[in-house]
Amino acid sequence: MITKLKRRFIILAMVSLTVLLSAIVAGMNIMNYNSVVSNADETLEVLSENRGRMPVFFGDGLDDLFDDIDDMLDDWDDIDARTGDYSWSRGGRGHAPGGFSRDEAEETRYFTVLVNGNGKAVRIDTDRIYAVDQNQAAVYAENVIASGSEKGFVEEYRYAVTEEGKYSRVTFLDCGRTLGAFRDFLKASLLMSLLGLLVVFAVICYFAGRIVRPVAESYDKQKQFITDAGHEIKTPLTVIKANLDLMRMDIDDANDDAAGDDVEGDGPQDGNKDALSASLLESIDDIDGQVDRLTSLTNDLVYLSRMEESGSTLTMTEIPVSDLVAETTEPFGAVARERNKDLDISIEPMLSMQGSSKEIEKLVSILMENALKYSPEGDRIGLTLRKDGRNIVLEVRNHASTPLSEDDLAHVFDRFYRADKSRNSAVSGHGIGLSMASAIVGVHGGKIRARSGDGSEFIVTATMPAIG
Length: 468
Hints:
Blueprint: H1 2-49, H2 62-75, H3 102-107, E1 110-115, E2 121-125, H4 134-147, E3 151-154, E4 157-164, E5 167-174, H5 176-211, H6 213-260, H7 268-309, E6 317-319, H8 321-329, H9 332-338, E7 342-347, E8 353-355, H10 357-373, E9 380-388, E10 391-399, H11 406-411, H12 433-443, E11 447-451, E12 457-465
Parallel strand pairs: 7-9
Antiparallel strand pairs: 1-2, 1-5, 3-4, 4-5, 6-8, 9-10, 10-12, 11-12
Helix pairs in contact: 1-5, 6-7, 7-12, 8-10, 10-12
């Protein structure tokens, strides 16, 4: 139990931390990506406002002035002046957004494509980029126009579509550097998060034992108390049992002596003595029954405590579980007929497992006794033993005397739990049998669960590793 508690604590801590780190890393990278897209869109907006060109910056020096004039002359171009297909005109020197310097303008890599109404590229400008030729640029632009999207990415190029008369200008901005930086940041953040999780996992594993130590100590003391108390209770119960037997013997001897007396002594007083003897014997039988019940409970508690304390004390050998289950269930046929119930036993032959024969026999007995006790008269009780993959599945099913809720199914393996909350049922039992069954299955490295299809059926399934 402590091992399971420790494991659950580690899992819960790691899942919580993983979710938190995932949210932080995702948030940071989403913000970073949005920043990349936002900056690209701002630059594209400037380019679109200036018809696919960076705005002209008149410098302070004479050389800068000549460079700017050359840029303006290069931009002055017509597609077909005779037909008036398109005339390039400049609306002014243009305005860059705040903080947009000449150096940034010179470093910006972009290309533009003018597309006519038929979706064909009619003017391509790749002067400001070297990684894309005019054929590639035309294909990119025509695909963008065909998609009908106004903004987006083509490979590592962010594009924007603007209408210029009867033409559409597609401006592409090279975002390779910024996207590369984004990917590097994403990889670094994921790597750092993974390393952080590994470090935290090591720390949690190291301190988990100390964290659950108070619970472990309390649990160990509880188990030790049950074991010690069980041994202490056994002694007075044995003494009470012996004294009850002596009292029976004394009453029998007194009755024999009275029977040997003269018949003349037989009268009302002798009749009272007989009635008193019968009453005493009845009381002794009641006390004896309660002593047996308490002795059985004490033995079960000690057994359960030992099973939960350490499963390594059991001698595990290869056992023919099919034969063992068949032999264990055979005597229950007579019990079932006595209670007007039927048994439906289905056992797959030649199954083996690593375990303790005594404990598996006890497991089968507990499940069968539970089914016989808590099923209505005339019910058909089924037991199935089969192999499922690498596991052996033992399943016992019966109809419940009282409807079972989901809460009942969640607690049936708890100690002293009974679906009858009043605990006034005429059926004997302490509510500890299924707890012992769960402990036995756990010692054998398996799992046990209870379910009910419609609330009236009670199905217990134990799954344990098989051999072969």
